[in-house]
Design a protein that fits this description.
Blueprint: E1 8-12, H1 17-28, E2 32-37, H2 40-53, E3 59-63, H3 69-83, E4 88-91, H4 107-135, E5 138-143, H5 156-176, E6 181-188, H6 194-203, H7 208-217, H8 227-237, E7 249-252
Parallel strand pairs: 1-2, 1-4, 2-3, 4-5, 5-6, 6-7
Bound molecules: nicotinamide-adenine-dinucleotide.
Length: 260
């Protein structure tokens, strides 16, 4: 039997990048999927791509902004309506914000990063956990970052929110483990997604490829990661193979977070 067979899993930020890669991997492992994104075109393309590769996959899409609590309620309700249950939540949607030193950081962008990266994760937990509590089962994966383990130059709100995601993960694990709910986080290093491509453009607008090469050189593995390498770990954490893993923030970074 496939490891995620029949599991009803919500994936936020599923339109591209890490969310889409995980949606594809979860579909391959038999999951039923609720794909959430505020980019409707990306969402439609993602669903069509999954359906093309996995004709039997059960997939619904919900256009929602994770920083809006009403939208979060709507993706929870849509999942319950379609599948009758929620087994897993991949709380993945997030943004990087702009790159600037702490004292010069634009306040509106700062607040937006908090709204999406922290409040979006919180709202997901707040509205999904009660349903998992009822059935005494749940698997949750929140997305932190290497920036949730250490500092990253010129990314204060990103780093602050990703440390917060690691913290909220520990609390959810403590408070809900007794109901059969495991909550973990992942801390990806630089993975080649549209978000990271955008970051390299900000660092070196004239030559983003040079910024990418320089960044990869600083990694012990001398390369960036691939979305599929993250997706496989997330699917493991969403499965019953990870039944006694709880409250962890797992780095997926080629060893980067161990260097100084
Ligand atoms: P991405 O920009 O490639 O994709 C993110 C997706 O999330 C997009 O489809 C976007 O439309 C959606 N999204 C953004 N804000 C949203 C919102 N408010 N509501 C609904 N959907 C929203 O980004 P990615 O690289 O795939 O990153 C995904 C997650 O992984 C983020 O939380 C990011 O911080 C984290 N992360 C990524 C990396 C990396 O190297 N790519 C490293 C560490 C952490």
């Amino acid at each position: 039997m496939k490891p995620l067979a029949q599991k009803a899993i919500i994936i936020t930020g599923a339109g591209m990048g890490l969310g889409l890669a995980t949606a594809l991997e979860a579909a391959a492992r038999g999951a039923r999927l609720c794909l959430v994104d505020y980019n409707e075109d990306a969402l439609k393309q993602a669903a069509a791509g999954i359906q093309q590769q996995y004709a039997d996959a059960e997939v619904i899409t919900v256009k929602a902004d994770v920083s809006n609590e009403e939208d979060v309620k709507s993706y929870v309700n849509a999942t319950l309506k379609a599948f009758g249950t929620i087994d897993g939540l991949y709380n993945n949607a997030g943004i990087e914000g702009k790159q600037a030193p702490l004292t010069e950081y634009d306040l509106e962008v700062f607040k937006k990063v908090i709204d999406i990266n922290l409040m979006g994760v919180y709202f997901g937990l707040k509205h999904v956990i009660p349903h998992m509590q009822q059935k005494q089962y749940g698997r949750i994966v929140n997305v932190a970052s290497v920036g949730g383990i250490r500092g990253v130059m010129n990314q204060t709100p990103y780093v602050a929110t990703k440390h917060a995601v690691s913290g909220i993960t520990k609390n959810a694990a403590l408070e809900y483990a007794r109901y059969g709910i495991n909550t973990n986080a992942i801390a990806p290093g630089a993975i080649l997604t549209p978000m990271v491509a955008g970051a390299f453009k900000q660092v070196n607008p004239a030559d983003p490829k040079a910024a990418e090469t320089e960044y990869a050189q600083a990694n012990p593995s001398k390369r960036l990661g691939l979305p599929e390498e993250v997706a496989r770990v997330v699917c493991f954490l969403l499965s019953d193979d990870a039944s006694y893993v709880n409250g962890q923030t797992l780095a997926i970074d080629g060893g980067q977070s161990n260097s100084y």
